[in-house]
Amino acid sequence: MSQVESKPLKDAPGPEAGFTVTRRPDGGMAIRFTNISKDTLKRWREFSLAHLENSDRLTTNLYDLRQIEIIPEQAIRYALEVNSDPAVRNIRLAVVVASEQVRQTLLEIDALSAGYGVEMEIFTSLTEAEAWLNRPLTLLV
Questions:
Q1: Which 3 state secondary structure label does DSSP give 125?
Q2: Digit-coded pLDDT (tens) for 39-89
Q3: What pLDDT sits at residue 118?
Q4: Is 43 exposed, middle or buried (CB count within 10 Å of its CB: 0-12, 13-18, 19+)?
């Protein structure tokens, strides 16, 4: 995929937040979680909603949840809230997991988010997730 002009990351958190964010070469974001404590979830929610405010093009995001073993109820509520924003229709989301329990929870979130327009796939391999994200983007309506 070609390099696009990168928009700045608004208030990108560091490792102390429980997750880190970098800009992908295609302009999307790569988000790696090390934990999902209440503070991490609150910070992720704020960060995600701030970035949806100015979502103006189709984009790809990669969530690396390989260090996460369980997704708590609060994380499910926050994910559903963020997924209800109309701007998620502009997002193709690849999630990489190591835990079957996390995969099952993500499938639940995806089912509950049906109709919002986010295109999400779950992977156990970072390489497979990147290959899926690098497919040509189409209008997700």
A1: coil
A2: 999 999 888 888 777 766 678 899 999 999 999 999 999 888 888 877 777
A3: 77
A4: middle
Mean pLDDT of the chain: 84
Quote the tokens at residue 28.
Answer: 């999307």
**Is residue 54 a contact partner of residue 85, using CB atoms and an 8 Å limit?**
no
Percent of the chain whose pLDDT exceeds 70? 84
Give the pLDDT confidence score for residue 53 in this predicted structure. Answer: 77
Asked if the 15-133 domain carries CATH number 3.10.20.30, the reply is no
Contacts of the segment 19-26: beta carbons below 8 A, 24+ positions apart: 19/43, 19/44, 21/47, 24/60, 24/61, 24/62, 24/133, 25/1, 26/1, 26/2, 26/59, 26/60, 26/133, 26/134
Question: Which of these, 54, 64, 47, lies nearest to 122 by C-alpha position?
Answer: 64
Q: What DSSP character marks residue 106?
A: H
On whether the CB atoms of residues 86 and 118 are closer than 8 A, the answer is no
Q: What does the domain layout of the chain look like in residue ranges?
A: 15-133
CA distance readout (Å), 10 to 29, 47, 50, 114, 138: 11, 7, 7, 28, 26
